[in-house]
Design goal:
Layout: H1 3-23, H2 29-41, H3 43-48, H4 51-70, H5 74-84, H6 94-109, H7 116-127, H8 131-148
Helix pairs in contact: 1-4, 2-4, 2-5, 4-5, 4-6, 5-6, 7-8
């Protein structure tokens, strides 16, 4: 095995994810969905690149879901999230687990508009002393709620 080419491929992977992350806000919802689908197909490759690359790829997909919700494209967002729900996150990646749970709660909230699950997650983060994450989640919720109302 040529380790130089493997390292090169991992570097390309990280650069592509970074490019996508930094352009999500200017891409069309359809483009966000298509790139997200490709990233999900290669998430195992990102996992092989290391836990940092996997974490970054996953949080980038979370940002894509949020951008799609804010642009009022819930179907695309739900599709991406449904695919992400098939991945097992290591227990040490609690923020990924909590983040995915939060996004699932946002998707679920849109139909009956029951915010209890969302608020429980935010309260949990506050109880754990994770105020920055709680503020970020609350801001995302407020932004999505504003779009939906």
């Amino acid at each position: 095995m040529d380790w130089n080419s493997v390292q090169f491929n991992f570097t390309i992977c990280e650069e592509n994810i970074s490019l996508f992350f930094n352009t999500i806000q200017v891409l069309s919802p359809k483009m966000i969905f298509q790139i997200s689908a490709q990233l999900i197909e290669n998430l195992d490759f990102a996992k092989q690149a290391g836990s940092d690359t996997f974490y970054f790829a996953t949080t980038t997909l979370f940002e894509a879901v949020i951008a799609l919700l804010i642009s009022n494209n819930s179907a695309y967002a739900a599709n991406i999230l449904r695919q992400l729900n098939h991945f097992d996150f290591p227990q040490r990646e609690t923020m990924l687990i909590i983040g995915r749970k939060f996004l699932n709660s946002l998707i679920d909230w849109q139909e009956p508009q029951n915010e209890q699950s969302i608020l429980k997650i935010i309260d949990f983060l506050l109880d754990m002393g994770l105020t920055m994450q709680a503020k970020n989640f609350l801001q995302v919720y407020k932004t999505v709620r504003k779009v939906k109302n």
